[in-house]
Design goal:
Elements lengths: L2 E6 L3 H12 L4 E7 L2 H10 L4 E4 L2 E2 L2 E2 H11 L3 E6 L4 H10 L3 E4 L4 H12 L7 H26 L4 H11 L4 H8 L3 H15 L4 H10 L4
Parallel strand pairs: 1-2, 1-3, 3-6, 6-7
Antiparallel strand pairs: 4-5
Length: about 220
C-alpha cells in the first residue's frame, strides 16, 4: 500500500520540486499540497495523510503549529523539511512532536528514503540537526555529573574525617575512638555518607571519595 504524503511549503518552486519527488517515487502518493498553515489544516482535515513534509517558516504562522494540529487529530507523522538548521529550531520541532528533521539541501533520493524510514518508526535527521542533539546530550550528561558532584560535596567535615580514617584502614571502633565519638554515632554518619554517595559499603565509599579527589 502506498504511503500518502502531504506537503506544507510556502515557496512555489520548492512545492513543485517536492511534488515531482513524491509523484516520481515508487510506493509514495501525493495526498495534498498546501502553501500556508490554514490551508494545510483544511486539507489535512479533508484528507488525512500518512506523513507530511512540513516547512517551519510560513506566511501565517509556524509549521510547528501544524504538527500540534496533526498530533491532536490523527496518526499523521510529520517530517520537518526546512532551511533552519539552528539548535533552537531543531529542539522546538522535536519537542512538539516532529518525527524527524531534514534540511532543504537533502537530496531527493534521501528524502524518499527518509519518508520510508519515518513510516518504519525511525527518526531521520540531517547531520547538522543530529549534531545539535549530540551537543545537548553531552551538555545533559555533564550537568548531571556536575549536579552529582555538588550533592556529594555536601558531605560534612565530620563525614570527610570518617572517610579519611576509613581510607587508612581504621575500623568503625578505631574511628570512633580517634574522633571521640561513640560507635553508634559513627554508624549514623556512615549511613548518611552511603546515602549521599549512593554506595553500599565502606570500600565503595572510600573508592568514590578517592575518585572525586577528596582523599
Amino acid at each position: 500500500m502506498a504511503i500518502s504524503v502531504g506537503i506544507l511549503e510556502d515557496d512555489a518552486d520548492m512545492r513543485a520540486y517536492l511534488k515531482g519527488v513524491i509523484e516520481g517515487a515508487d510506493g509514495l502518493e501525493l495526498c495534498f499540497i498546501a502553501k500556508n498553515l490554514s490551508e494545510a489544516r483544511a486539507r489535512h482535515k479533508a484528507a488525512s495523510c500518512d506523513l507530511c513534509l512540513v516547512d517551519i517558516q510560513l506566511p501565517d504562522g509556524s509549521g510547528l503549529e501544524f504538527i500540534r494540529h496533526a498530533r491532536q487529530t490523527g496518526p499523521t507523522k510529520c517530517l520537518i523539511l526546512t532551511v533552519l538548521g539552528d539548535k533552537t529550531s531543531v529542539l522546538q520541532a522535536l519537542q512538539v512532536g516532529a518525527h524527524g528533521y531534514l534540511l532543504k539541501d537533502t537530496s531527493a533520493r534521501q528524502i524518499i528514503r527518509d519518508i520510508r524510514a519515518t513510516m518504519d518508526g525511525d527518526a531521520p535527521m540531517s547531520p547538522r540537526a543530529a549534531a545539535h542533539l549530540l551537543r545537548v546530550f553531552r551538555e545533559d550528561v555533564t550537568e548531571a555529573h556536575t549536579q552529582g558532584s555538588v550533592e556529594a560535596n555536601r558531605l560534612t567535615e565530620r563525614e570527610r574525617d570518617i572517610l579519611g580514617l576509613f581510607s587508612r584502614g581504621l575500623s568503625y571502633k578505631e574511628t570512633a575512638r580517634v574522633l571521640g565519638l561513640s560507635q553508634h554515632t559513627v554508624n549514623d554518619y556512615v549511613k548518611s555518607i552511603y546515602a549521599k554517595l549512593d554506595v553500599h559499603s565502606k570500600s565503595e565509599a572510600v573508592f568514590e571519595a578517592n575518585a572525586q579527589g577528596w582523599l
